[in-house]
Structure prediction request, 199 residues.
Amino acid sequence: MAALKPTAFVGTITWLGRVADREAALESTSLQQIFAGFAGPEGEAHGGLIRPSCSRVLGQYKRNTPIRNTRQFSILGAEDLAAIAARMGLESLDPALVGASMVIAGIPDFSHIPPSSRLQAEGGATLVVDMENRPCTLPAKPIEARHAGLGKAFKPAANGRRGITAWVEAEGMLRLGAQVRLHIPDQPVWAHLDQARRG
Prediction:
């Protein structure tokens, strides 16, 4: 029996973007298509097969330890993005302002799909879900430049809605309008999860 199960949940890519130089600006540049190679989105500053460890994994590594890059893509659900905008009092929020790589519409509760799920696009490009992407303060500056007074509103508004990070398992082209099917691990939830979280 297969360890990964295709589901009936199929989303549509509604936005693609790339951060060319994150030192210069977090804001993404909108694209019509992008090649997803094993090192991540072509030309993406967050790409690469490895990355220096950051504050998210201090429980495992000293800062700047070279580790596998499981954060090649930053992907948001269109519905979650709309909810963030509403919480901020905006009609909409440009995904470029939060450094997104992709927005997918049509998969419910997108930010909480199981880690190790696959997002497989038409043509075969396949991304492995790392985990929920927790909101940080970095988008505050580009948001503030576009929506004065609302930069600091992003982090609390995005809590539980910030999307996921992912890495490339199978290479291929990603295009606006392409369908993406969700595949999930065929295993039960670990019985000791609550105990592990406590401690």
Notes: The mean pLDDT is 94.
